[in-house]
Design a protein that fits this description.
With 163 residues, this protein is α+β, with helices and mostly antiparallel strands. It is built from four helices and nine strands. Keywords: Acyltransferase, Transferase.
Length: 163
C-alpha cells in the first residue's frame, strides 16, 4: 500500500537516484541540495512510498514571492509556520512508475498541507510539455519564467489556495 510521508535523512540515496533518473545532471538537484532541504524544510518535502521503496517525491520551500527564483535552487531557508507561497522545486517519479497517479497524488497532498497552513498559493516552473499536466490539476499558466535554471525555457504555473 502506498503512503505519503515527510522526508527522512535516510531517504537521501533513493531521492538522489530518482532525481538523476528524471532530470539531466545540469537540472538535477545535488545530494547537498537534498541534504539541506531534508534538514531545513521537511515540512514541505513529501515522499510516496510502498514497502520501504520511495516511488516519487515533491519538495520546495515557502517564499514571500509568488514565483520561483533561481536562488531557491541553491539556497534553502526554513519555512515560516503560516502564509507565504509554497514552491515546488521538484516533483519526480521514476520513468518505470510514471502514469500511475503517483505525481498527481503527491501534488494533491502538498496542496492540502499547504492549504492547512494558510499558504496563498502553490507555485512552480515547468517545461512547456508539462503545462497541460498542471493545468488539468487547476494550475494557471502565467507565461515564461524569468528563471534560466539549467539553460531551459520554463513556464510559471500557479494555483491559488487562499485569496
Amino acid at each position: 500500500m502506498r503512503t505519503i510521508r515527510n522526508v527522512k535523512p535516510e531517504d537521501l540515496n533513493q531521492l538522489s537516484s530518482i532525481e538523476l533518473q528524471c532530470f539531466p545532471e545540469q537540472k538535477a538537484a545535488t545530494r547537498e541540495a537534498f541534504q539541506e532541504r531534508i534538514r531545513l524544510i521537511p515540512d514541505s518535502f513529501w515522499v510516496a512510498e510502498t514497502n520501504g521503496i520511495i516511488e516519487g517525491f515533491v519538495n520546495g520551500p515557502v517564499t514571500e514571492e509568488a514565483y520561483i527564483t533561481d536562488d531557491l535552487f541553491t539556497s534553502t531557508k526554513e519555512n515560516p509556520p503560516l502564509g507565504g507561497h509554497q514552491t515546488i522545486l521538484g516533483l519526480a517519479v521514476p520513468p518505470h512508475l510514471q502514469n500511475q497517479g503517483i505525481a498527481a497524488g503527491l501534488l494533491k497532498h502538498l496542496e492540502q498541507q499547504a492549504f492547512m497552513v494558510k499558504r496563498q498559493s502553490v507555485t512552480l516552473t515547468c517545461k512547456e510539455e508539462l503545462t497541460a499536466f498542471y493545468e488539468r490539476r487547476g494550475y494557471i499558466n502565467k507565461g515564461v519564467s524569468a528563471s534560466n535554471h539549467g539553460g531551459i525555457v520554463w513556464y510559471n504555473m500557479t494555483k491559488e489556495l487562499h485569496k
